[in-house]
Design brief:
It is a single chain. The chain is mainly alpha-helical and 97 residues long. It has one domain. The chain is 91% helix and 0% strand. The protein is built from four helices and no strands. It is rod-shaped, with a radius of gyration of 19 Å. The protein starts with a helix and ends with a helix.
């Protein structure tokens, strides 16, 4: 192979590896956000005041963490988003009471 082909190959490998890392970090950030929302719901008494939302948030968060270990970053991010949404819904209900 000539020098130009090697250069193109190296650039493609670099971009593909850098793009694949973006999904992982996006999922991790969404998980951290869901963890904060779930912890806030727990501090607000969500376990007893809004048990459905609290259990949903906890369950989706655990699934998200598990799926992340399976390298399914898109699914992990989606489960984390559902966890965060459930926690935020629970917080809104707690504030109404």
């Amino acid at each position: 192979m000539d020098k130009k082909t090697w250069s193109i190959l190296i650039v493609l490998v670099f971009f593909s590896s850098s793009l694949s890392g973006c999904g992982y970090f996006a999922a991790r950030n969404e998980i951290k956000s869901a963890e904060r929302a779930t912890a806030e719901l727990k501090r607000a008494g969500g376990e007893t005041l809004t048990p459905y939302e609290y259990c949903s948030a906890e369950s989706f968060l655990e699934i998200s963490k598990y799926v992340l270990t399976e390298n399914s970053w898109k699914a992990s991010k989606e489960f984390a988003a559902r966890s965060k949404s459930a926690a935020e819904t629970g917080l809104a209900e707690v504030k109404k009471k």
